[in-house]
Structure to design on (247 residues):
């Protein structure tokens, strides 16, 4: 018997009007039962062509490397700060002001004689500063005087580093107004104008005291480059200094 005889025209029209609603209710029930999992799967499949490719992956890896470098730099900075605090707690130096009472004209760039000595706590090896930074170390004392060997003295050797890139070097006096730094690396990547500080690796002086500014650089020096340094402190005109005396 033909199907049209089983469904009256009105019933057929009603069924065609209701089936979209039935499909919608079925989908809602499926979503509820699956807790939306199939929608997430469908979205993943539809969006697959837009997923990050090799270029995006390289950007992410580059960003992660940069983040690691920043974290490392922060850790190094914090480590330096903690080391500085530890040293301050250990040494806790005071700055003892002392007048310059004598200079030998023939050794103008070699030594100073100060008007304070062991009675004031001055000892051999203590750092001596002038306005601008380090100028030398105490090399001899009496009860009331102290001899300072300047950084410009030919016998002077102090560990330093370049503040910008932390490349280490040895500061040596030449007997003239400007000492020289001899770097430890073949390619220290320095330039005129770089500031030189005392090195944290030095056992003679406290770290990061200002010393001078790089002037001319000889990149062909053997075994490593070297540079002439203009001291920040006016060694030729200083009349008062400060001696770092531990408490």
């Amino acid at each position: 018997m033909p199907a049209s005889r089983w469904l009256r025209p009105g019933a057929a029209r009603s069924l065609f009007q209701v089936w979209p609603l039935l499909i919608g209710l079925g989908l809602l029930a499926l979503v509820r039962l699956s807790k939306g999992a199939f929608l997430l799967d469908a979205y993943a499949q539809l969006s697959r062509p837009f997923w990050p490719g090799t270029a995006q992956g390289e950007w992410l890896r580059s960003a992660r490397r940069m983040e690691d470098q920043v974290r490392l730099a922060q850790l190094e900075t914090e480590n330096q700060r903690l080391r500085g605090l530890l040293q301050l707690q250990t040494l806790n130096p005071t700055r003892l002001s002392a007048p310059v009472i004598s200079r030998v004209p023939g050794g103008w760039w070699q030594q100073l004689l100060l008007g304070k000595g062991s009675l004031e706590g001055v000892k051999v090896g203590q750092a001596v500063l002038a306005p601008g930074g380090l100028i030398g170390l105490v090399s001899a004392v009496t009860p009331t005087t102290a001899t300072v060997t300047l950084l410009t003295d030919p016998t002077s050797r102090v560990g330093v580093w370049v503040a910008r890139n932390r490349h280490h070097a040895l500061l040596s006096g030449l007997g003239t107004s400007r000492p020289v730094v001899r770097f430890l690396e073949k390619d220290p990547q320095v330039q005129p104008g770089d500031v030189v500080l005392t090195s944290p690796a030095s056992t003679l002086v406290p770290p990061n005291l200002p010393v001078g500014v790089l002037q001319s650089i000889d990149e062909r020096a053997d075994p490593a480059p070297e540079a002439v340094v203009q001291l920040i402190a006016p060694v030729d005109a200083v009349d008062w200094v400060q001696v770092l005396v531990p408490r």
Q: What stands out?
A: The chain has three domains: 3-49, 52-89, 95-247.
